[in-house]
Amino acid sequence: MPLTGIEIFKLLPKTNCKQCGEPTCLAFAMKLAAGKVELALCPTLSEEAKSKLAEASAPPIRPVSIGAGGRTVKVGGETVMFRHEKRFENPPGLAMLIKDTLDDAEIDKRLERFNTFQYIRVGLTLRPELIAIRNDSGVADKFVAVINKVKQKSDGALILMSAKADVLAAGAKACADRKPLLYAATKDNADAVAALAKETACPVVLKAGSVDELVELSNKLTAAGIKDMVLDTGSRTLRRAFEDQIWVRSAALAKKFRPLGFPTIVLPCEMTDDPMKEAVIASVFVAKYGGIVVLSDMRGESLFPLLVERLNIYTDPQRPLATTEGIYEIGGPNENSPVLITSNFSLTYFIVSGEIENSKVPSYLLVKDTEGLSVMTAWAAGKFVADAIAPFVKKCGIADKVKHHKLVIPGYAAAESGGLEEELSGWKIMVGPREAAHIPAYLKTWTP
Questions:
Q1: Comparing C-alpha atoms, which of 446, 426, 442 is closest to residue 434?
Q2: Sequence-separated (6 or more) residues with CB below 8 Å from residue 437
Q3: Which DSSP state fits 123?
Q4: Cβ within 8 Å of residue 332, ≥6 positions away
Q5: Cα–Cα distance measured from residue 83 to residue 441, given in angstroms and rounded to the nearest whole number
Q6: Cβ contacts of residue 256 below 8 Å, gap of 6+?
Q7: Measured between alpha carbons, how far is 379 from 343 in angstroms, rounded to an integer?
Q8: How far is CA 285 from CA 8, 92, 312, 385, in A?
Q9: Theoretical Cys-Cys bridge with 370: which of 109, 345, 378, 427, CB 3.0 to 4.6 Å?
């Protein structure tokens, strides 16, 4: 059972030093219990307390990081079976397969697609993260050559796939700085691959023919000192692989069964030759419960739905999507352009900005941080009121961009117009439409 905030607090130094970023040790304990902060943030924790808390606060499914730098992919770390119970922590990584038997032209095309497929949605960039390089040739030199090409032309995190431990070792040596995921340790090569994983400090996939065999392999590598592992049950049919995912997840979460307490990898690319069927299979494992999903290739018409599905499932239901606070220039505004303001609830931002674009009137849109609340909700909560809006308008720099100093506020916040004129000396506050759909008509009547 995880410790409560009070139980954690009893083990903390109680100095309220604030070095963890929280105002008190109790606040830190409560956030640690909720999984919102890391134990390592407390710099004055005793080793004894650290040991107790590390074990008690560790998620039942170990988080595993793949790659290095800004493109590190973190999988696992899950604590619940269903999103509505709390939230899912780390979205599954989507990987594109590149075989070392492909010709250079085809590899270049795949890498170009991998680098090109990026989509902006609700202010977030959606894209695949991993490239799986599979050694179908059986030749180490060819494997290394493809790895070097991929390293040169993409910054994605890498998965190295080979049935031969010596070939895998050659590949790992070629990209050790990228901290690749090694695929895979099996009952036949477990000792050699375990030694390679320890030498390179890289995470490793355990591949077995059944869940029972996977448990044995997990115990063996854990005893050898390997901590960062990813599980492949070996199933290559949708039904069997789906059942395995449910079994592994429930054993780790409900029964706290440590040998299966690791993220999983699934390979729809090995389950069908039909690209669209592969995408459908992948969609199943994005939902339940693949940690990494490997696709044979990436096509825009199938990748985009998978990225959106992943976004929807792994968005924290307790935290609304929010846009970054700041000044947004729409349509190339100038010093005489209108200035509007709204909240940073993502849906509100995209609706308002979309209507401004439709108006064809170049404008500045100020987005005020309201903790992701809509205009009405933020106003009711005191987060979109005069004494909150005015300091933002003063500090954001919009006064240096326009001559007229007129600010258009949403109609739903009309009650704040008087207070804003008092707070913002020299500014004229104008009440805009209540509904975003009326913004184009309103802006067409604008005069500086």
A1: 442
A2: 355
A3: T
A4: 362
A5: 42
A6: 60
A7: 9
A8: 35, 9, 14, 44
A9: 378
In three-state secondary structure terms, 375 is helix
DSSP annotation of 296 reads: S
Domains and CATH numbers, the chain: 5-57 (1.10.15.40), 64-314 (3.20.20.20), 326-443 (3.40.50.11600)
User: Where are the alpha helices (H) located in 17-164, listed in sequence order?
Assistant: 25-33, 47-57, 104-116, 140-153
Residue 346 backbone dihedrals phi, psi, to 5 degrees: -55, -45
- pLDDT for the residue numbered 5: 83
Please answer whether residues 184 and 193 qualify as being in contact, where contact means their C-beta atoms are separated by less than 8 angstroms.
Answer: yes
> What is the dihedral sign for C-alpha 132, 74, 290, 279?
negative
Contacts (Cβ under 8 Å, ≥6 apart) of 55? none
Contacts of 309 (CB under 8 A, 6+ apart): 283, 286, 287
Average pLDDT per 10 consecutive residues for the chain, totaling 448 residues:
79 91 90 78 86 77 93 94 90 98 97 94 86 97 97 96 96 96 96 97 96 96 96 97 97 93 98 96 97 96 96 84 91 96 92 95 96 92 95 95 95 95 94 95 91
Residue type, 220: K
**Is the Cβ–Cβ distance between 359 and 443 less than 8 Å?**
yes
Helix, strand, or coil (residue 212): helix
Phi, psi of 271 (to 5 degrees): -105, -15
Which runs of consecutive H residues, i.e. helices, occur in 100-205? Answer: 104-116, 140-153, 165-174, 190-200
The backbone region for 55, taken as left when phi is positive above 0, alpha when psi lies in -120 to 50, beta otherwise, is alpha
Number of H helices and number of E strands within the chain?
16, 17
Give the Å distances, CA to CA, from 174 to 104, 200, 249, 351, 372.
18, 11, 34, 48, 44
What are 183's two structure tokens? 């695929």
Verify cis geometry, omega within 30 degrees of 0, for the bond prior to 289: yes
Please spell the DSSP secondary structure of 5-49, one letter per residue: HHHHHHHS------TTSSSSHHHHHHHHHTTSS-GGG-TT--HHH
| Most distant CA pair in the chain, distance | 78
